[in-house]
Write a structure and sequence with these properties.
The protein is α/β, with parallel strands linked by helices. The protein has 2 domains: about 160 residues, Aspartate Aminotransferase, domain 1, CATH 3.90.1150.10; about 240 residues, Aspartate Aminotransferase, domain 2. Helices cover about 40% and strands about 15% of the residues. It has 14 helices and 15 strands. α4 packs parallel to α10. The radius of gyration is 22 Å and the shape is globular. It binds pyridoxal-5'-phosphate. The site of pyridoxal-5'-phosphate (PLP) has 14 residues, from α5 and α6.
Length: about 400
């Protein structure tokens, strides 16, 4: 019996790479850990001071200096950042929060975890961000019992949302804005960094799929000193240090980031702008190389918005292509691709009750969006392989009709 027969006999799935040797995959993304990070992290491990300490404080300082905001509070994940930002504004039972229908589910899950209801709104087709027009319609037609309290725009894939239009709506309808900037560290909108001097609350993620990573991790940036101290308290069991030691002021959870994760984050921050610059060049190269294919087959290439940080490069296939078949074909040729993001109203967790208006754009992006490899160490020959493979796969699919 050869290996494959033994695997099958043992009830295991057919596993071709075992027979043919591993295929060298071009991954969708790859973390970029600088050499100096190893030293920094092992220094923390040797020190024995593992929880939030000097590196945590330094990382927060460095992030707020980078963003140009008053305060940054580091936490254990991007989802923790979203959850705490909502809690810091006292969003909870009886409240509703407007969320784009096309995003990673953590955006709406964070709202649900506070006891509030997410209200799902369609996105616009060019930048994939919440549509100010659909948002205003949703606000005007909202008839639910809960009080609309906040908008949670996502800077999808690092493409900046239209903050001017969102701030205008927020002011007119008395809503807070909590930005899901999980993908958007280093992105900017009209020259101003996302999460910078004009933000109320912006939430970042340092998951390995994001440009800067601490393994798991996240941060909230703010320019409101009261919100900052509330966030610090909420991340740390609701405790506050007073003259007589710690007091428990409110019941909360533990969302602290470890000190070695902060050391890991600090080791990357000085490279971030350069990495984003490289990602912009890769995006430009993809767009130039794929333009003829896009014109011939009707594939939508992403818009090069000024300030885009290119956490993900997602194209949109026309309806005649079956996206999941394209994903499979690309992977079998050694190129890892995937869907871009979810359509929350389509995954059945949130129910129709929270859905306001037509969400046809979010549905289409969910079914036809195709994320292709994007990371700063992607080589020129790999970019060419990705494009040539995509060309072959799509032409073959088009020829089969
Ligand atoms: C990654 C991501 C999150 C969640 O961040 P975690 O650090 O994985 O918890 C939330 N929202 C969006 C838009 C994301 O891309």
């Amino acid at each position: 019996m050869d290996i494959e027969e033994r695997r099958l006999a043992a009830g295991l799935k057919r596993h071709l790479p075992l027979l043919t040797g591993p295929i060298e995959m071009i991954p969708l993304s790859r973390p970029n850990i600088p050499d100096e990070a190893h030293q920094r992290v092992s220094d923390v491990l040797r020190s024995g001071m593992l929880v939030h300490g000097k590196n945590g404080a330094d990382f927060e300082q460095a992030l707020s200096a980078y963003l140009g905001c008053q305060d940054v509070v580091v936490v254990s994940s991007g989802t923790a950042a979203l959850h705490l930002a909502l809690l810091a504004l006292d969003v909870g039972k009886g409240d509703a929060v407007l969320v784009p229908d096309f995003t990673f589910p953590a955006t709406a899950n964070a709202v649900l975890m506070t006891g509030a209801e997410p209200v799902l709104v369609d996105v616009e087709p060019v930048h994939f961000n919440i549509s100010p027009e659909a948002l205003e319609k949703a606000i005007r037609s909202y008839k639910g019992d809960a009080k609309l309290k906040a908008i949670m725009p996502v800077h999808e894939f690092g493409s900046p949302a239209n903050l001017a239009a969102l701030r205008d709506l927020a002011a007119r309808y008395d809503l807070h804005i909590i930005e899901d900037a999980a993908c958007a560290l280093g992105a900017s909108n009209e020259g101003a960094l996302i999460g910078g001097p004009s933000t109320l609350l912006s939430c970042f993620s340092f998951h390995p799929r994001k440009t800067l990573t601490t393994g798991e991790g996240g941060a909230v940036s703010t320019n409101d000193a009261q919100l900052a101290s509330r966030l610090r308290r909420l991340r740390n069991h609701g405790m506050e240090r007073g003259p007589d030691g710690f007091t428990f002021v409110e019941a909360s959870t533990n969302y602290r980031l470890t000190d070695f994760q902060s050391a890991l984050g600090l080791s990357q921050l000085s490279s971030l702008d350069q990495w984003i610059e490289t990602r912009r060049k890769i995006a430009e190269r993809y767009i130039g190389r794929l333009k003829p294919l896009s014109e011939e087959l009707g594939v939508q290439l992403p818009a090069q918005a000024p300030g885009h940080s290119w956490q993900t490069f997602m194209l949109v296939l026309p309806d005649r292509f079956e996206r999941d078949a394209v994903v499979k074909a690309m992977r079998s040729e050694g190129v890892e691709v995937n869907l871009g993001a979810q359509c929350l109203s389509a995954i059945g967790l949130y129910g129709e009750a929270t859905l306001l208006g037509n969400v046809s754009v979010a549905r289409r992006l969910y079914h036809q969006g195709l994320a292709i490899p994007m990371f700063e160490n992607l080589r020129a020959d790999e970019i060419e392989t990705v494009c040539a493979t995509l060309e072959t796969v799509l032409r073959n699919a088009a020829a089969r009709g």
